[in-house]
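Section 3.1 - Work completed
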Amino acid sequence: MPSKQTYSFCFCFRRRFRLPVSEAPPEIRTLFDRYSDQNGVMTATHLRSFLAEVQREDNATEEEAQTIIDGHKHLSIFHRRGLNLESFFNYLFSHHNNPPLSPSIGVHQDMSSPLSHYFIYTGHNSYLTGNQLSSDCSDIPIINALQKGVRVIELDIWPNESKDNVDVLHGRTLTSPVALIKCLRSIKQHAFVASEYPVVITLEDHLTPDLQAKVAEMITRTFGDILFAPTSKSLKEFPSPESLKRRVIISTKPPKEYLEAKEVQETEEGPQQEKPADDEEAWGKEVPSLRGGTISDYKNIEDDDVLDDEEDIDEAEKSRQDAADEYRRLIAIHAGKPKGGLTECLKVDPDKVRRLSLSELQLEKAAETHGKEIVRFTQRNILRVYPKGTRITSTNYNPLIGWMHGAQMVAFNMQGYGRSLWLMQGMFKANGGCGYVKKPDFLLKVGQNNEVFDPKAHLPVKTTLKVGIAGVPNDTVMKKTEKVEDNWSPSWNQVFEFPLAVPELALLRVEVHEYDMSEKDDFGGQTCLPVWELRSGIRAVPLYSRNGDKYANVKLLMRFEFI
């Protein structure tokens, strides 16, 4: 008899669910019968064949298969020489033994290329605890980001009230400040907890020269030998992540005069707010442009970046000579926008490299007319993309538009949740979760006629993933399973196929919802995985909360096949 158990909901009423005994789905039973003997025992020889033929683990050995069996003997006490159906099913559902991404390969990409050859896990206004206008500033969000593998931390630095020290806050807003020195010390303490690859601190500088000198002293004393300081005023080529292991890098615009910030006065209506994010609903709007749309969908959108956090480089250059030499020497990655429009911004200088920042809307507009030029620029230089200023509630945008143009630093608000952020988290599960993912070769290559990748080109299908996918526009498909009602162990047994033209940038995003006929569906869990690192075969896929925290015992059993 199946066991029964009573669960209390909201202390208001009780509902009894029927908890089925762990019964393997028919497909698993069929596979077990095929790879076991007539007595219902899967020996090491059988299991090795299963690993090679179904899981596509061609190098699997009988010794490895026996290790798996030994780890599940407690579930198969009457079959010491192999697995029975229950222990086989338990093995398949074990995320520790059977994850969708291989835990053993770790950081496996070449890390010896220049920084410009990598996508880098990047935060925006990393110090904010909530919205962009009135939330507290703190080092806690910085610590949380570093612990999740984020490699680029952004700090806006301003004079404190007495103008004798430096605070971090979102300028011209009602956010409460946090001391810069506190943020720097927290960065040093937690920088390499999740990854030993370099941490970049991008500074939005609103300081006078004397306070810039003070910041230089703070940074030098705090980081000491782990601070990377270039030996020349500008770099001809960026160093590699490998050469910068456990180092901290400073990136900012060249020093400029401090402009007094005007106090923010709220109108009677209060500060301008963006519309509520539909993706906070169980089934809301998709990530923009991921349903077959392209960047051309945005060509009529005006750039409304009221909180644009970049200024022209010419103003900065005028007062560069006034800044403290100590501060200027710390800047390893120079940022700024040359005067003269987009064409000048995207010019590639063979003698020096730099960082350019564009808002999400500025990038979308630029991609309409200068897509290939952006790709060429990002082969040597760094492009940072940041959220438009009207994202008051700290929502995010579609990161794939930046990535498909080679943008290394697609800066995100990390303090919230939503489908866009899940895509970001999925991307950086790749390469051992180190925060650096090597860009696909097609974004780095230059052809015989000096041609580069065209993000608008219609490309042939390279492979088909048999199992939603989020990727470049042609690879964007969303599909839903049929509904399974009142079952805590649902089995869908459905197959989806996704043709992929650019599998190197494809992400598989999965959401689980509790179907409710009378009300909106309830969110159950989500995950996002880099398609190019998926392991073929039947895998245990853990689910995560809205905030990206892994559930302890909630998994999906999924089969992946590339055809």
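Second construct:
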Amino acid sequence: YMLYQLLFSGTSVCVTSQSSMLDVGKWPVFALLPPEELRLIRQACVFGSAANEAIYVTVSDEVFALGTNCSGCLGLGDTQSTIEPRRIDILCGKKIVSLSYGTGPHVVIATADGEVYSWGHNGYSQLGNGTTNHGLTPALVSTNLIGKRVTEVACGSHHTIALTTEGEVYAWGYNNSGQVGSGSTANQPSPRRVSSCLQNKVVVNIACGQLCSMAVLDNGETYGWGYNCNGQLGLGNNGNQQTPCRIAALQGINIVQVACGYAHTLALTDEGFIYSWGANSYGQLGTGNKSNQAVPTLINMEKERMVEVAACHTSHTSVAKTQSGQVLMWGQCRGQAVAYPHLTHFTSTDDVFACFATPAVTWHLLSVDGDDYLTVAQSLKREFDSPEISDLKFLVDGKCIHVHKALLKIRCEHFRALLNETDEETIEIHQFSYLVYRAFLEYLYTDTINLPPEDAIGLLDLSTYYRESRLKRLCQETIKRGITEENAITLFSAAVKYEARDLEEFCFKFCVNHLTAVTQTQAFADMDHDLLKNFISKASRYGAFKN
């Protein structure tokens, strides 16, 4: 069982695959979705001031939203909150490739066709439609983007930037600090190409802080513009910039990815190093202190190569992933200031934001593995009682149950001993019923039992016989959940017989609390004489017969 725990427990699955299944259930906003619905999700985004808005895409490319719907940010055509998912019809079938959001919130997506849609808060023209009217449904952003294919979008608090296949950057919305890069501080009502020193340059990666914008070029250079009072542009000063400025301190260093927090920036080099700069009041720069840095500072990662950096403009949390798959976090982590990168047990940067960021929103569009990939546990469950590759069958009450010798040996000491002594391909079982024995074998494949309480008594007998203590506990829990006045004495008798002390006490107390009804059942009339005497004696001591 311990081996099985190590292999299959939810927090420590150690299955190597190109992409792991993401558990969207870590975000509380998804908690009410039934498991069958969660299994269909292929992409998801959680946003909002309290992580109380969510948009997700299913395997059939349908798009749904749920949450408080602040400023119409769910794109449902109204501002009604919804605790149950509602479909965003206009986005179904669009194939979203990038999604970002602001703090209004406003939401912007790019589709596989290179189109941009936006909706939600629009007080600063961050939807790019030339107005300041909130958008209740997704609308195509077309000004200056006709004929352009957008591959990535990024939002600050109230501005938006978009990256095209040609490496051009377009920006619109709130521009009080120059974050639109237009050379002024006037708000930008529709998409405008960010040119000046980005003219004729090819941008490959973009990111936004609350009030600033960053771009990485194909040659590894990094540019920043907008708000800079915390040094988040990395220019060595604290002056705002209305047009893109190259980070001179990174001369000769090849940056491949940049990520922006609320007021700090992380950059990953092609050699797997991480530089940080900007605000540091929560230790989000990972330098071991809380002093702001206006120039890029190398974070000491003890020679471990990094492959991803993550941050979100809504929080002061920093995250990185190593080449070996380890995830580190620092900065504001559930209210604590963590000044050095801290090793976590997570397997994905997304998990840190779900569990430690404030608010606990997604830092980018979550992409759930859409391949027909099954975990080890799922694969085993599917093969139970399947004759195709089974190498052993049990014959119980004339019916066959198909299993695999190797798995039974791994999971059960009884079978390890039995199957090492026999090469039989069929084993007959007479001691237990088909229903009970099948449930036992299925438990070895799935770690769960699914039986009504009366049948769980038989499984309790079996678990006692095979000394399967965890199975015995599961049986007791099943019986407890199914106890009634009609079956209470039967269950109590079984608990005594199989020395299940906790269950015996539970059933006894239930019988005493429902004594009048229980003593009128057929099971009570048929009760073993010695057991009846003991029951009455114990009930008397318990005070059941006092006036």
